[in-house]
Amino acid sequence: MTKKTAVLIFANSSAEEQMQKAIPKGQALFDVLNNKTLKTVQRSELPYFLYTEKEQKGNSFGSRFVNAIQEVFDHGFTSIITIGNDTPQLTTSHLIAAATQLEASKVVIGPSTDGGFYLMGLERSKFNAATFLNLPWQSSKLCKFLEAVLTETYTEIVKLKVLNDLDGFKDLSFFRNCFTGISVEITKLILALFRSGKKVNSLQNFLISLLQFRILFNKGSPNLIITSL
Questions:
Q1: Do 112 and 205 lie in a common domain?
Q2: Do 162 and 205 sit in the same domain of this protein?
């Protein structure tokens, strides 16, 4: 495998991920996902760069991501494969497949079910920082816009299998029922978080129902009722 391609792991620390993705008690899960992602990349034997919130530069997700890509290219690499830490089913095979397609000067996209992408592979000659900055980052239109930008240059795009990202608590439901490509350790952590979250949601729903009931049948001030709960 050629060494002109580098992998960019664009992933926050587990503590930062827990805050941004609003998964209570999720730090242990993101610790495991970060370690898994690192081992997945290391098995590919491709050189890699890890950019957590400490290394990222910029005032928005898009600017931080684009700056990280540019810095990897500034190290002399002619192709890059970008990934995050939130795709539990990502494997070394995905990285090797992307690197192989880059050898043929193709662009590689691993689409996510939410309209984004979990992997992007492209050559330095196809990267325009200004254009990439204007993409609708962190939206369901991202992958579609990225494809449109790249096809304008008559670039051949190779798509990998569509995978699910873990972007928030709502995604735990999918992964707890997923029996392929997920380690036992990750599955156990997801199940524990899902059960914990269901208990919290049940309590919140109960309190809301109780509040609505008391407001409906109490002749006093609703403000006093809310204060008493």
A1: no
A2: no
* Three-class secondary structure of residue 30 per DSSP: helix
Burial 94-105 (b: 16+ CB within 10 A, else e): bbbbbbbbbeee
On whether both 107 and 156 belong to a single domain, the answer is yes
Q: How many CA atoms lie within 13 A of 120 on its CB side?
A: 20
pTM of the model: 0.80
Span 44-81, pLDDT tens digits: 999 999 999 999 999 999 999 999 999 999 999 999 99
Together in a domain, 207 and 178: no
- The domain of 208 spans 200-228
Examine the domain organization and report whether 205 and 162 are in the same domain: no
Using one digit for the tens of pLDDT, what is the confidence trace for 108-158?
999 999 999 999 999 999 999 999 999 999 999 999 999 999 988 767 899
Same domain for 80 and 29: yes
- CB neighbours of 84 closer than 8 A, spacing ≥ 6? 9, 10, 11, 37, 118, 165
Helix residue ranges, H only, 57-183: 61-74, 92-103, 129-133, 142-151, 172-176
